[in-house]
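Hi R.,

Here's the chain you asked about this morning:
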Amino acid sequence: MFDIGFWELGLIGVVALLVIGPERLPSVARSVGKWVGTARRFVHSVQADINTEVSKADELKRLLEEQSRVESLHEIIEQAPRDETQRGPVPRVKPDYAVKAADHDATPSSPKEPTPTSADSAASPQKHD
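And the predicted structure, written out as tokens:
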């Protein structure tokens, strides 16, 4: 709190001894010690209260952010049509791997078509008319 060294304390003690006198100095020192202890406890409790309020403020801030996210979800829900007749079909999106496979098949990597193998012809019956 204060930057008081040994020499400063010694000087304060000598001045107190001269001003107060040797017979009353011990009782004054006890009183000053009690007041200093009371002041330190008060400062400590104020710091603890401030830290508690700051943590409550952080918690409130987190709750407000969460509430704003929930409110945005409520807005989306409110904008959605309530009646089945008002709803249109839900667009289906192809997975990324399906889109890449379709793009890969669309680009001709080799000019020739795959030829059916004997296993393919045996697996699919052919009609003879």
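The helical segments are 6-20, 25-79, 96-106, 118-123.

Let me know if you need anything else.
M.
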